TrEMBL record, chain A:
Entries under Gene3D superfamilies matching the protein: 3.30.70.270, 3.40.1170.60, 5' to 3' exonuclease, C-terminal subdomain
Residue span(s) of domain UmuC: 8-193
A Gene Ontology term for the protein's cellular component: cytosol
InterPro entries: DNA/RNA_pol_sf (IPR043502), DNA_pol_Y-fam_little_finger (IPR017961), DNA_polymerase-Y (IPR050116), DUF4113 (IPR025188), Rev_trsase/Diguanyl_cyclase (IPR043128), UmuC (IPR001126)
The entry's keywords: DNA damage, DNA repair, SOS mutagenesis, SOS response
Gene Ontology process terms (BP): DNA repair; error-prone translesion synthesis; SOS response
Upper taxonomic lineage: Bacteria, Bacillati, Actinomycetota, Actinomycetes, Micrococcales
UniProt record similarity statement: Belongs to the DNA polymerase type-Y family.
Any GO MF annotation of the entry: damaged DNA binding
Name of the protein in its database record: UmuC protein
Organism: Arthrobacter globiformis (strain ATCC 8010 / DSM 20124 / JCM 1332 / NBRC 12137 / NCIMB 8907 / NRRL B-2979 / 168)
A Pfam family this chain is assigned to: DUF4113
Signal peptide positions (record): none
UniProtKB/TrEMBL annotation, chain B:
PANTHER family cross-referenced by the UniProt entry: LEXA REPRESSOR (PTHR33516), LEXA REPRESSOR-RELATED (PTHR33516:SF2)
Domain of life, per lineage: Bacteria
Assigned protein family: Belongs to the peptidase S24 family.
Protein name: Translesion error-prone DNA polymerase V autoproteolytic subunit
GO molecular function: DNA binding; DNA-directed DNA polymerase activity; hydrolase activity
One family name in Pfam for this protein: Peptidase_S24
EC number: 2.7.7.7
Entry keyword set: Autocatalytic cleavage, DNA damage, DNA repair, Hydrolase, Nucleotidyltransferase, Signal, SOS response, Transferase
Enzyme class label: transferase
Signal peptide as annotated in the record: 1-27
NCBIfam families: PRK10276.1
Organism name: Arthrobacter sp. K5
Keyword Acyltransferase: no
Gene3D superfamilies according to UniProt: Umud Fragment, subunit A (2.10.109.10)
């Protein structure tokens, strides 16, 4: 094996949302901290101190809240503007260390790196120091010949402070690697979960080690090519190339929980209109058109009576990003809404997306609204004068609609708003 | 305003570049003799921010740095990546809060000083005993 062979590093921020909160509010250091999901529903990120209290991911806030005071637990609402900016800083910095960067999620990225084992581990340490220094985010780096193994190495680096946050899979001795793979269930492998895990278990494949030793051809025939690639990747054969940018996003979802439940059709008409317009704006910005719209609503899982989960799937007359057509399609959900039932969430999803302008429809099928350019006009005005300055009919213009998200414990948007800057005391 | 979130790539350690701005208005129809020299307007981001990934803006609260030209309500441009030196104005973490002080590094030890004798010095044996959040590079002073 050539020493300068391509290696893959997975860089991932530890407890990202909690770390972002702490970077600007040092008083949170050392305290148990949870960051809550949209609408302050449940804990999505826990600091190590909060994990030590036994709080699990996804635990509903109303169950944790009564004991928060006694534990000294601090909760924060999601501050997506802050996390987005911090993420962009981390990714830009990572891009300086490799021309080959695949941003995988808000807090993790794969980097293509080259060099001797010592060099790549050294680079991993340099990256870790730089992200901590420049952005104040703690990261762990997993390095391996394949993405799947880089994920495992990253996990190992996280769980073993002695490694100093950097682990190169191939530098571990073979016995330790086998021991680790034998201890971890298949569900810990990137891309294996749920039903797939149960099917593998039924065949006696329970640990990652057993999966890596499975016959790739059998795996392909009984499961899929995707899982066969995972098996090969676990054996050190790269099958998942780095993607510079994921193309072909195949769906956009606009969905939220409500701070106070929705109970009537007129309220739903308004909410669905807002989502349809958001979808229209997003589609236009990405030069996409949708062919299918799905609208859905649901009651709370914590509310055992009045269960209702209506949804409709509406094929659009032509690929479109027109707000009028999307709004009309979303309103197809209205007849399915039961008056008086307390709905906790609603949303729309547009799918079957394609680049706009690829295919000019025949004249009889052109859409009069699109011809008049209403969508682009609305988008232009909102961009210039801000969201909530113009909207279509039912969505209205009132700011702070009473169904909008509850974010009572949000920290300031320190890096994106002049009036919310961090304060440095001089007294 | 998106001073620090603009999607510009500014190389670490980029030095200030002199920029020519379009000098005069020219009658329509004529190619401007200056246009070959026009290289974009003066850009404050470029001037004030050396590294977009490590630069943050904080607001000053209090008058203890008044005599260093930093007033209550001013904005400080802070670079987290800079090495704090003797004489640097730093944002340090004290009792869980961000605090502006001047850093003094001497053979006898390290001191965080306010620019106002009414505020006591904070002395520690070594720099490692402090948490320096970042080094202030500019003050956006309200005149």
């Amino acid at each position: 094996m050539s020493e300068a062979r391509q290696q893959i590093a997975l860089v991932d921020v530890n407890c990202f949302y909690a770390s972002a909160e702490r970077a600007f509010d040092p008083s949170l250091e050392g305290k148990p901290l949870v960051v809550l999901s949209n609408n302050d529903g449940c804990a999505v990120t826990r600091s190590p101190e909060a994990k030590a209290l036994g709080i699990s991911t996804g635990e509903p806030w109303f169950k944790i809240a009564p004991r928060a005071k006694e534990w000294g637990l601090v909760a924060r609402s999601s501050n997506y503007e802050l996390y987005g900016d911090i993420s962009a800083r981390v990714m830009e910095l990572l891009g300086r260390y490799s021309a080959w960067l695949e941003v995988y999620s808000i807090d993790e990225a794969f980097l293509g790196i080259k060099g001797s084992p010592d060099q790549v581990v050294g680079l991993g340490r340099t990256i870790r120091t730089a992200v901590q220094r420049n952005v104040g985010m703690p990261v762990c780096v997993g390095i391996a010949a394949t993405k799947t193994l880089a994920k495992l190495a990253n996990r190992w680096a996280k769980n073993n402070p002695a490694l100093g946050g950097v682990c190169r899979w191939e530098s571990m001795d073979p016995e330790s690697r086998e021991l680790l793979m034998a201890r971890l269930p298949v569900s810990e492998v990137w891309g294996v979960a749920g039903r797939l895990e149960r099917r593998l278990n039924a065949m006696g494949i329970c640990s990652i080690l057993e999966l890596s030793r499975a016959d790739p051809v059998m795996v392909r025939d009984r499961f899929s090519v995707v899982l066969m690639r995972t098996v090969l990747e676990l054996r050190g054969t790269p099958c998942l190339p780095l993607e510079e940018e994921r193309v072909g996003r195949d769906q956009l979802i606009f969905s939220r929980s409500f701070s106070t439940p929705l109970t009537s059709v007129p309220e739903f008409r308004q909410v669905l209109s807002v989502y349809a317009q958001q979808a229209s704006a997003r589609l236009a910005r990405h030069h996409l058109q949708a062919k299918v719209l799905t609208a859905f609503a649901g009651t709370s899982h914590y509310n055992p009576k009045d269960k209702s989960f209506p949804s409709v799937c509406v094929p659009l007359p032509m690929p479109t990003s027109d707000p009028v057509l999307l709004t009309r399609a979303a309103h197809a959900l209205l007849p399915a809404i039961q008056d008086g039932v307390k709905y906790a969430r609603a949303g729309i999803m547009v799918t079957d997306l394609r680049p706009s302008g690829n295919q000019q429809p025949l004249e009889p099928f052109t859409n009069p609204h699109e011809e008049r350019g209403i969508g682009p006009l609305v988008e232009q005005i909102s961009r210039k004068y801000g969201r909530s300055t113009i909207g279509l009919g039912f969505a209205g213009l009132r700011s702070g609609l009473d169904w909008s998200m509850k974010r009572g414990m949000r920290s300031p948007r320190y890096t994106t708003h002049w009036d919310e800057l961090p304060v440095a005391r001089a007294n | 305003m998106g001073v620090i979130i603009g999607p510009r790539v500014i190389e670490a350690g980029l030095s200030l570049r002199l920029v020519l701005i379009s000098p005069v208005a020219v009658a329509a129809g004529f190619p401007s003799p200056a246009q070959d020299y026009f290289d974009g307007r003066i850009d404050l981001n470029e001037h004030l921010i050396k590294d977009i990934t490590s630069t943050y803006i904080v607001r000053v609260s209090g008058d203890s740095m008044e005599q260093a030209g930093i007033s209550d309500g001013d904005e400080l441009i802070v670079n987290r990546a800079l090495e704090p030196r003797d004489g640097s104005v730093v944002v340090a973490v004290l009792d869980g809060e961000l605090t502006v002080k001047r850093l003094k590094i001497t053979a006898a030890g390290v001191v965080l000083q306010a620019a106002n004798p009414l505020y006591p010095d904070i002395s520690v044996p070594a720099l490692a005993d402090l948490t320096i959040w970042g080094v202030a590079t500019r003050c956006l002073h309200h005149v």
